[in-house]
Amino acid sequence: MVKILVIHGPNLNLLGKRETDIYGKTDLQTINGKISKRAESLKASVEFHQSNHEGDIVEMIGKAAKKFDAIVINPAAYTHTSVAIRDAVSAVDTPVIEVHLSNIYAREEFRQKSLISPVAKGTICGFGTDSYLLGIEAAVSMAGKK
Ligand code: DQA
After folding, report:
1. Sign, Cα dihedral of 56, 59, 60, 61
2. Whose CA is nearest to atom 13 of ligand 1?
3. Mean pLDDT value across residues 129-140
4. Which residues contact 81 (CB under 8 A, 6 or more apart)?
5. Ligand 1 mean position to 10 CA, how many Å?
6. Would you tell me the crossing angle of helices 129-145 and 28-41 to the nearest 10 degrees?
7. Which of 73, 78, 102, 117 to mutate to test ligand 1, by most ligand atoms within 8 A of the CB atom?
8. Which ligand 1 atom lies nearest to the CA of residue 107?
9. Is the pLDDT at 140 greater than 80, yes or no?
10. Is the pLDDT of residue 146 over 70?
11. How far is CA 106 from CA 8, 46, 67, 94, 116, in A?
12. Which domains are seen in the chain, by residue range?
């Protein structure tokens, strides 16, 4: 069974209440439920973590290497600022798939640069909750090719 770690970065615990015109009205628990269902249909298992702290996310990525076949991460605001998360992604062999609810390339200039994308296996953005579901599909597909 393919084992996937899903990491939600800062402020994603506020989904459903936060900037709903951009991120939609679906809360994180509902998104996680949809991810679980998709993973189940692909015979994959999934574990979830949400953190507002950069160091926590760095450690999660490092520890995941032994336990998981792939990581699906929405680094949220850290996408645009975190050299530490980028370096953590570079340091592990586990494929990392970057996802975003919004299309970061259609937004403010500061969001149009991702420090993570160059070191991720691939990036999916702009499809709302479906970005995560596509990320899960990509993770299963990647793990199958290993
Ligand atoms: C986000 C995009 C980021 O720019 C932003 O800081 C977020 C969410 C997205 O999922 O669209 O918090 O990662």
Report:
1. positive
2. 76
3. 98
4. 115
5. 9
6. 30
7. 102
8. 4
9. yes
10. no
11. 21, 30, 35, 29, 17
12. 2-145 (3.40.50.9100)
Q: Tell the residue nearest (CA) to atom 3 of ligand 1.
A: 76
Tokens 């993570």 identify what position? 116
For 141, counting Cβ atoms within 10 Å of its Cβ (0-12 exposed, 13-18 middle, 19+ buried), the class is: middle
User: Per residue in 6-43, pLDDT tens?
Assistant: 999 999 999 999 999 999 999 999 999 999 999 999 99
The H helix count followed by the E strand count for the chain is 5, 5
Query: What single-letter DSSP state applies at residue 103?
Result: -
Amino acid at the residue 20: T
What would the two tokens of residue 66 be?
């032994």
For ligand 1, atom 6, name the residue with the nearest CA: 77
Measured CA to CA, the distance from residue 27 to residue 119 in angstroms comes to 28
Which tens digits make up the pLDDT trace of 36-72?
999 999 999 999 999 999 999 999 999 998 899 999 9
Query: Active-site residue 23, yes or no?
Result: yes
Q: Which residues contact 23 (CB under 8 A, 6 or more apart)?
A: 15, 101, 102, 128
Amino acid at position 40, single letter: E
